[in-house]
From TrEMBL, chains A, B:
The lineage of its organism: Bacteria, Pseudomonadati, Pseudomonadota, Alphaproteobacteria, Caulobacterales. This is Competence/damage-inducible protein A. Residues 12-171 form the MoaB/Mog domain. It comes from Phenylobacterium kunshanense. CDD domains: cinA. It holds the Pfam family FLAD1_M. It comes from the Bacteria. Gene3D superfamilies: MoaB/Mog-like domain. InterPro entries: CinA, FLAD1_M, MoaB/Mog-like_dom_sf, MoaB/Mog_dom.
Amino acid sequence: MASGADDRVTCAVLIIGDEILSGRTQDTNLRDIARYLNVIGVDLAEARTVPDVMDEIVGALNALREKYDYVITTGGIGPTHDDITADAVAEAFGVELFEHPEIIAMMEARFGDQLNAARRRMARVPVGGDLVKNPVQGPPGFTIGNVFTLAGVPQIMRGMLEDVGPRMRGGRPTVSRTVRVEGSGEGAIAAPLEVVAKAHPDMSLGSYPFFSPDGYGSNLVIRSRDPEALTGVIAELIAALKAAGIDNVREIDVA
Amino acid sequence: MASGADDRVTCAVLIIGDEILSGRTQDTNLRDIARYLNVIGVDLAEARTVPDVMDEIVGALNALREKYDYVITTGGIGPTHDDITADAVAEAFGVELFEHPEIIAMMEARFGDQLNAARRRMARVPVGGDLVKNPVQGPPGFTIGNVFTLAGVPQIMRGMLEDVGPRMRGGRPTVSRTVRVEGSGEGAIAAPLEVVAKAHPDMSLGSYPFFSPDGYGSNLVIRSRDPEALTGVIAELIAALKAAGIDNVREIDVA
């Protein structure tokens, strides 16, 4: 469960792009954002992927920004006709777009008289919005209200993320520890795991099975915002597994 | 745009699992499902990722099965306490779960007296549901109404998909062709691309930029259900690009 803590700060991700829904592009931004948010103690609570269609983007963005503390969007901020994310964010907030002078200045410095209409589209920001720094390449992203609008290109998105975290009201970081079971499948592990999980509803216990040449096994991951309590639960889980006759159990480091 | 055709058949994907939202696991099922649906002519219209939380799964599933022709869920059908997808699907449809005799028979054959309560959880199917074959390993998935519930483990999910397509009312397959531009960035490509896109609203034109040692470039992907019309548009696009002074243009095979 990602839920539990009262100080929970939530974020949703809205992935925008036909290329994801067509299967042409493998999204990796969701995982990268999730890992980034973990470290600052913000829970990624939901993700949605929608096509480059105005009504779909606006509808999803309004649903998510209402339900969660923050929303991060990725994709659709390039110069081509199918990049309508800025238009959709402005529509969702009921504001106009304007050409941000800082972006125009960057573009004039780079392109000079090659600064055409398509490139100028990338300078458009919703009225009331601020810029999100792009330390990698190309124009910045922007933020308005509780929404952060980032690029879709992974290396650029990751760079922009560095300017997002400091603006979020973060909870405490989540600590994750992993107990590895070898030679036993989930079917055997489930009962002792469930006993420990039910005894600690404030923690997240997940079982991630694998199949190795040596047979079945599973990595049991426990996540908590309380490192000291986590240490006790790790010992409790290992004891419960061994009491169930599962002997090949050890904590591993997957940091 | 994924939209356009009147004979459009739509599907949404609901990815269920804390491990995706925690960033621990990189989802690849969405891409694989998208590519599978393309071939049978079904449009993947939206995807959502939710945690292993009953209310979140039920809410998302009911929203998606109402809005689209089909919904495919992945994940949360294992034996452990955190696998609640079957419970959530039954809840969404307002029916009970029952132990499917075919699955119990498979499990008895495999596990004998090792068929414990945890494993029996994987035999539970919503009343009114049918099985989805699992040609890989472990118990089958199930389908009820317009929802298909598949495993989260990618190789098992892909195997189960083979039993999903034949049950869908598919449109015509979508054909995809790609024009590669090298030495010019999206900023230069955007204008001619937009002209061609606006002239053919029934087709999907996307620009997917890359950065190579030789500089900027982009793959321009055109998707249509009409292969003959697509051939004409490819020629039209290449002519428009060259007329804009973009010479390093050729069709490539990305099949």
